[in-house]
Amino acid sequence: MKHAAIRIIQDEHLAISAVLYCLRHQVRRMRDQGAPPNFALLHAIFDYIVSYPDRWHHPKEDRYLFARVRRRTHEADRLLAELEREHELGHPLIEELKRALVDFECGRPGARDRLFDAAERYVRLEWEHMRKEEDLLLPIAERMLSAEDWQEILEAFRENDNPLFGLKPRDEANLLYRRILALFPEIRARSPAAV
Ligand SMILES: [Fe+2]
Ligand SMILES: [Fe+2]
Question: What are the sequence ranges of the domains in the chain?
């Protein structure tokens, strides 16, 4: 159970990382090589970020993984506070990204640079955040959590249709993920399957 739950979390991180890689790649091509914006792809990426990490992955971590670790030990208190703050920081950054994208599409001055800047900050925040979860938090969870804890976490992360998180969020995220891969051939070869 422990390994199955950890595997799902790592797989989710891998899928999120692939989309973030795609976002950074798009931004750098536009900024450094003058490539034209692919608005369909940028919208698909932002829809995915909203529906998957922000509405699905992070809340499950808060509610199950973090809560269980906090219940078993104080060892991770500071780390958990930091990770929770990062979950909260992601939300306004996504709003900033979405606003900048709409403004960029409408040709508003300065929007292009705002989009590039917010995208770089968001990608860095999320990559560092997931690294911290895998390198620092999961080893503590592995040591401290009981079989019953892992059972609950596994069920939560396997859940496909939990009304607490909206209607079929995983199905929606998978569709968006496939759409991103379809729009971004460079990443297809090196990406994990949809989670
Ligand atoms: Fe997280
Ligand atoms: Fe995570």
Answer: 2-188
